[in-house]
Amino acid sequence: MSFNPNELILEKIRAVEEYDLATNELVGRYTQIESPSLKTAATGTAVTDAMGAEITTFYNAQTGTFDFTNSLFSLDLAASQFGSSKEVAEEMKRPVSETVAVDGAHKAVLKYIPVGTQGAEITSVKVINDDNTFGKTYTLSAAGDNGTPADGTFLLDAASKTLTFPEDVTGRVFVRYSAVTGNTVKITKTSDSIPEVRSLLVHALFHDPCNTNLVYSGVISIPRAQIDPSAVELSLTSEGKHAASYKLQKSYCDENAKLFDIIVSDDSAA
User: Fold this and answer.
1) Dihedrals φ, ψ of 129, to 5°?
2) pLDDT tens digit string along 52-83?
3) Residue 110, SS3?
4) Where are the alpha helices (DSSP H) in the chain?
5) For the chain, which terminal residue's Cβ has fewer other Cβ atoms within 10 angstroms, N or C?
6) How, if at all, do strands 197-208 and 172-186 pair?
């Protein structure tokens, strides 16, 4: 008997994959899928008689949406929503903020080597008071005659990541600077960026309702989908989720172009 399923148990959506339309290159894969939803809609035009009674309705302008929530924050998904690409580099410049202890020699050693204008990589530093409020601001200066900073200033040796303060400075200081860090990833959102149209593969697992040991693999193939950037919200908490919504599109030049295929295969027969 040929394989011809009707009612199936959907176990889960295993993954959502996003591909570049021109190259078919994988640009994003999301595996922690919650609340996936595939919706279609159409515009109805009612035909009425002289008394206003409806005779029939013609439906056109078929559209669709695919929504899901990823349980984990995804940099690839965020890049797609921002209409940008993920920049990956072994080294990259980024801003750093540090609270650093001042030692007995009145020096503070940073975590990274500060970069910027040579000799002025850091221009000011704030002392942190015992009650965690900001205290006096110290500015960069050249060393005095005895090699020590003048009152209200500090010295910087960028190569050794060391700041030197006058003798009256103790406790902690707050330092903001730029540094080159290793193995860094960056995504950028600009005001004029628009998400590209992609193709999607939505992978699913099904079971036979009469024999749940029978597992069927399924895929929803969406040839054209554009992620909706109109209301992107990133929950910046540990328990936050990452939601996304795609608008399904047909090719404008193909009147009968499909919005998606739902394909189910009998893996048990393999």
Assistant:
1) -70, 170
2) 999 999 888 789 999 999 999 999 999 999 99
3) coil
4) 75-82
5) N
6) unpaired
As a whole number of angstroms, the distance between CA 146 and CA 64 comes to 75
173 touches 100 (CB < 8 A) = yes
- Residues contacting residue 192 through CB under 8 Å, at least 6 positions apart: none
Report the alpha-carbon distance of residue 37 to residue 142 in Å, rounded. Answer: 63
Separation between Cα atoms, residue 138 and residue 163, nearest integer Å: 11
Q: Indicate the residue type of 71.
A: S
CA distance 265 to 261: 13
Model confidence over 166-198: pLDDT tens digits? 999 999 999 999 999 999 999 999 999 999 999
Buried b (16+ CB within 10 A) or exposed e, 221-247: ebbbbbbeeeebeeeeeeeebbbbbbb
Among 175, 158, 151, residue whose Cα is nearest residue 102: 175
- Contact residues for 233 (Cβ-Cβ < 8 A; gap 6+): 243
Question: Nearest CA to 36 among 19, 15, 55?
Answer: 15
- DSSP classification of residue 132: S
